[in-house]
Structures are given as structure tokens and as C-alpha cells.
Amino acid sequence: MDIFEAQKQIDSENKFKQRIDELTRLIEEANTAYHDNDTPIMEDSEYDQLKLELIKLERLYPQYKHMNSPTDKVGGGTKKGFRKVKHAQKMLSLDNAFANEDIVEFEKRIKRFLGLEEEYVMHYVAETKLDGLALSLTYMDGVLVQAATRGGGEEGEDVTNNVLTIRSIPTRLKSGLGFMEVRGEVFMEKDEFAELNKKQKELIKRVEDEGKKTSLKPYLNPRNAAAGSIRQLDREITRSRNLSFLAHGWGKLSTPLGNHLWDAMNNLEAMGIPVIKDRKVCKGSKDLVAYYESVLHKRSDLPFDIDGVVFKVNDLSLQQRLGNSTTSPRWAIAYKLPPEKVWTTLEDIEIQVGRTGSLSPVGKLKKVMVGGVNVSSVTLHNEDFINGFDSKGDTIRDGKDIRIGDTVEVYRSGDVIPRIADVDISKRKRESPKFTFPDLCPVCNSKVVRPEGEAIHRCTGEYKCEAQVLGKLQYFVSIDGLNFDGLGTKMITQLYHRKFEGNGQRWLENPGDIFQLEKNLITNNIVLADEEHWGERSTQELFAEIERKRTVSLSKLLTALGIRHLGSKNSQHLADHYQTWDKFSEALSQASSREGEAWDELISIGGLGETIANSLIESFQNPVFQVWLDSLIPELVILDLQSSDQEATAISGKSLVFTGKLEKMTRKEAQIKAESLGARVYSAVSKNIDLVIAGPGSGSKSKKANELGVKVINEEDWLELIS
Questions:
Q1: Exposed/middle/buried for 537, CB within 10 Å: 0-12, 13-18, 19+?
Q2: DSSP state for residue 580 in the 8-state scheme
Q3: String of b and e for 251-274 (b: at least 16 CB within 10 Å)?
């Protein structure tokens, strides 16, 4: 490859990196609105399409994937005022399909994973997908003992008292022994929603007629109303809302419910648990598509809102073999329903600066109702999208550009800022100018650059740019970081902008200042409870939360630092490998030359690779980042190794490499099984590997293992070992 071809390839990859950055920001912003605030700003299909695009790009360019990418997360956070509870088994989300071809590929993917012939007839359970709030009900010997929202998947909000007011949820089952987590959706039927909004509008009118101001608003849609109702601190409000519940599965069980999903759901219903009625056993992808089309035709006649249908493998033993990815089961998929589109006016275009310095144009719309949700903002992605041509030079919207004042067609999809589908050029004013990006950052006035071949404009200010610094601080305390309660975006911004009178230093300018906040305020005779938005109780709760967060696992700390490309999974790999902060930082220092044993070891950990390793080293060599660490690390108690609830096995903590073709299971299946038993799976053989499992055709990896003295076993020995 000559130098021109190499540069062309680099430029092409940079375009995709910028797109990954943009998609990540949009999805994270919308997740907060939807999951944490119960105020969705978009509809399902837009969110799903953007998330699908991000998943595809991350697979093609894993080196550009963000740490704690939204594709690795489930749901949102927990609401203040509710006790957090940990789910016995993680609550997952579903992968999505948007076309019949996606369902065909879903079935092919399952058969490839399981090593099944193409002619094998797969059986599925198809059911409608409720548009509600995910809920987990815990029963002990048939008695309801706890109810929790999904939250971030690992832990949710304890809403037991509120759930006890929902008539369709049994507090005592007709049968059932031992421990059982029932999973389903809380929702509000369309008629109940209409009646609730009628009463809400009447209340608003009465207040306004009395000449008083009110913050009350009509509810946006049934899902929003249901989510807000179940998360009320006053349970009597929940009782008055006439909520419903239907189960669609389960989490941890002490006693199996059956060998097949269909029978298991029938057994749940026999116990007294309401389950989704519109279910059907289907054979193969053709049956699944036919079921989807039948639901699509009767969608408007259903008494509740749905946002798609769900297909699940019926055989529970095959479900177990397929297992889960980080966020989703491999044995299920949601086929989403198409979005709604409406026309409105683009009133302005604003530039927002993200924590990585990317300049993102956001269109401000004349407020319009799209699918039951008020929409006033729309993502415009980048300069190419506004101009009507993508990164490859292909046309968007038939090459129509977007200008302030245009009449635009908007559609929503899920939790993300919606997107423009079309522009009505015939209604554009003649004097309407084209939109141009600023040359200087609107926040810090630093130079804005758009590297050749890239789609995103970027501020060069980095730590000099308030937007980027605030973004990094907000990420540190967010659910993706250390997950502070009572210290959200607004509070971080408030503390960042306040300065001590004596030395002019900000109250909060790096993560370490969070843990020194109480001491610094006392030293400067400042009472936080006297400040706007704070009170005695919220201040006490904040300082108590800060003390709790002083103890942190190594993997969680690495994730919270916000190092580009380093996700939670690779943070865990690093923590498992180095075990302590001192060993990790020392190894990073030794690897800084990008050569030698320390470097080779670093890039081999969990398939980390050179891109992430370089990002780590560059971050730790940044002088401002080093100042942040010098302020932060002494304040923390960093656990040497994140504890695991997993029972010890014969391969716990072992480093494994699979090579060659396995006959009893696919290699991917074997790798996932090994990780579930506490092992770490690597892609390359080195002296740090404990065991190589070799099938026919293993070749060079087996040879290298023998040269290094690493033990090599065959598949039969492997199966005996893990049995």
C-alpha cells in the first residue's frame, strides 16, 4: 500500500470514528431523558436505528468504541428517593430487528452458534412487546417479597410498596416453592390513560382559573404515565392510576418451570401470574414474519400500546447454550414497529460541544407532537448531513440541504433526539442562507478544526474548554462512571462555576475535588445547605454518598476515568490481569515505549489491542490528566480486585486460548462457557497463558504453546475439566 492509499484509509476510518462519537453522545443524552426522567424526547424507531448503526460501526471499528458504550448498557439509572436493590440475575434488554431480512439472519446466527444444519427446524415463542416499564417481582415460597424496576440492569429501584397497590399483581401465588424472579412490564391501558389525562387537564384548568401558576402538564403517553406512576413517593398516587402488569419471563429460579418456554409461561399463569396472552409457537423465520404482519394489522385495536413483537427460542436447553451477550440474550430478538413522521418548522440550529470536543449541530423545532410525545429538538449530526451528502458522497434526502426556517419532516425512534427525514424545498424563502459551522469554539473560543476526510468539527481547546471539562466531570459521576446519587449534571455545573473568594479556585475542577469538597467548604466557611438547590438533608446525603464512593473497584475506576476507547469490559480485563492500581500504573509506565515485554503483555490482555493500549498510555502521559490522578487517587480506597459472586471452578482465574475446530460445541460457545466459569479467554498464546484447548487444525498456536511450555489439552479433556 503506497502512502496515498494509506492516508485515504486513515481518512476513511476517521469519518467512522467521528460518527461513533456522535451516535454515542446522542444515545446517552436520550437515555437519561427516557429512563431516568420518564420524559422521552423521541420515539422507539429513531432510537433503534441509531443504536443499530452504532452497533454496526463498533463491530467494524472496535478501536473507536467508547468506554461504557450505550450498546453495552441496559436501561437507565435509579431515581432519587428509592432504595437501590440488586437483582439476583441481571435484567437484560433485547437486540432489535427492523426488516424481515433481520429475522432470517437472526435464525442463521443461532444455527451457526449452535453448529446446527441449515435444514434444522427451530421452534420459537412469538409474543407482543408491551411499551411499559420493566419490572422484576421476587417471590419466596409463593409470597411477593420485593418488586424492583430494571434500572441499569444490575440494580434497580425498590418499588415494592407501590407495586402492592396494583391489583393484577398477586401478593401470594396459588403454588410455587423456593425463590423466583418474575419479569414483566407495568403499563397503562389506552382508556385509563385518556381518563387520567382528562382529569389532569381539568386540574390544570382549575388552578389557572384561580390565577395561580402551575408546573403540571398533561402526560405525554401511556408509557410515560405508567413509569411516572410506579415511581411515586406517595403510594396512594400509584393506587389511583389503575396500572396493569403482564409477565413475559423470569430471572433467577430455585426450581425450573419446565423444559420449554411455552410450557413455563403456562405454568406461571397457573400460579396466578398474569402473562402476555397474544403468544404463539412458530416454526422457522417464515412463521415469525407472518406473526409480525398479523400483529401489525391489529396494532391499533389492542387495548394497550406495543412497540413491536418478540421472538424467543422455545427450547430452554438451547437458550442456555446460546447464553447472553453483555446486554442481550442471544436467543431472543425484538422486531420493532415502524415510526411515525410529521412536518414542522426548523427555527434555529445550535452548536453543542461534547466532552471529546466534537461540535454537534442540534436543530430547534417548532414544537410538534410525534407519536404522543412533544418534540422540540432534532439531531443534525454533522456538516455533511446538513449539506445533504454523506461521508461517501452519496445523497441524503435527494441532496437537499437543511437551512434555518425550513419546513422539515421529522420522525422519532426511542430515547434519542429525532432525525429529519425530508425537507420541503418549495416552502423555503429565497433569501435563506446556507448554514456554516463556526471557525471558533462557541464555548472557549479555541480554534475549530475539521480534519480532512472526517465528518465532525472538533474544538482544539481540550482541558481549556469548559464544555469538555464539565463533560468529563459529569461522566465521572454518571451511571457510566461511579454512579453518584444526588450529584447529577446540574449540580456538577453549579459546583464547577463557584469559586472560593480567598484564592479564586473553583469548588470543583477535577474528580479529586469531589472527595475534598466537604473539607474545602468548611475551610472556607461555606455552608452548602445555604446554596441554591441545596438543603440540609440533600447536603448530608451528598457527603454520605461521597464517603461511600471512596471505596471503588479497580475496574470501575478505570471505566469512570473516561479514557477513550476503553469500555467496561476491557476495564474488567485490565483489573483481572493487574489486580492492583499500583501494578497497573507501573505496567503502563513500562509499556510507554510501545515495545518490550510490558507492551506485548498489555496488548494481549483480553484482546485489548494497540488502539486501546495507545489511548491508555497517551492519557496517562497527558500532564492535566496526571494532575487529576494526583488529586484523585490519594482520596480513594481502590479494591485490589473486584469481588465476584461466582463460585470457584476448576478454571476460575485461569487464562485460556481456544484454537482449531471443536466438535461438541462451537468455539464461540466454548469461549463464553469458559468466561461464565470465571476464566479469562485470550486470542494469542504467550507465556502468561495457563491452558490451550486445541481442536483439529490448531496449527501455529499449539506449536507455540509447546515451545513455551504451556499445557495443551483436547476437547474431550476440556469437557471433562469443566464438568
A1: exposed
A2: S
A3: bebeeebeebbbebbebbeebebe
Q: Which of 512, 577, 571 is nearest to 586 (CA)?
A: 577
Whether pTM > 0.70 for this model: the answer is no
Q: Compute the residue count for the chain.
A: 723
**52 close to 233: Cβ distance less than 8 angstroms:** no
Exposure of 63 in the CB half-sphere (CA atoms within 13 A): 12
> Which distant-in-sequence residues (6+ apart) come within 8 Å of 86 by Cβ?
154, 155
Distance (Å, rounded) from C-alpha 527 to C-alpha 487? 17
Distance spanning both ends of the chain, measured CA to CA = 49
Answer yes or no: are the C-beta atoms of 438 and 352 closer than 8 Å: no
Phi, psi of 140 (to 5 degrees): -120, 115
Q: What is the rounded CA–CA span in Å between residue 577 and residue 681? A: 12
* Burial letters 325-344, b for 16+ CB under 10 A, else e: eebbbbbbbbbbbebbbbeb
**Number of Cβ within a 10 Å radius of residue 653:** 13
470 vs 24 pLDDT, higher one: 470
352 neighbors 409 (Cβ within 8 angstroms): no
Per-residue b or e along 389-419, where b marks 16 or more CB atoms closer than 10 Å to that residue's CB? bbbeeeebbeebbbbbebbbebbbbbbbbbb
pLDDT tens-digit readout, 410-420: 987 543 568 89
Domains annotated on the chain, with CATH: 3-68+339-427 (2.40.50.140), 84-336 (3.30.470.30), 462-549 (1.10.150.20), 552-639 (1.10.150), 655-722 (3.40.50.10190)
pLDDT band with cut points at 50, 70 and 90 for residue 80 = low
CA distances from 598 to 429, 530, 558, 686 (A): 63, 52, 19, 12
Sign of CA dihedral 512, 514, 517, 519: negative
Range of lowest pLDDT (67-81, 318-332, 383-397): 67-81
With beta carbons less than 8 A apart as the criterion, state whether 504 and 497 touch.
no
Give the Cα separation of 127 and 141 in Å (integer): 28
What amino acid is encoded at 149 in this protein? T
CA distance 297 to 502: 69
Q: What are the pLDDT digits (tens) for 110-123?
A: 999 999 999 999 99
130/274 Cα distance (integer angstroms)? 13
Name the catalytic one among 51, 65, 129, 336.
129
Residue 442 to residues 196, 350, 384, 448: CA-CA distances in angstroms?
Answer: 44, 10, 20, 9
Known catalytic membership, residue 129 = yes
Q: Write out the H or E segment, with its range, that includes residue 373.
A: strand 373-379
Supply the Cα-derived Rg of the chain in whole angstroms.
Answer: 27
- DSSP for 6-29, please give it: HHHHHHHHHHHHHHHHHHHHHHHH
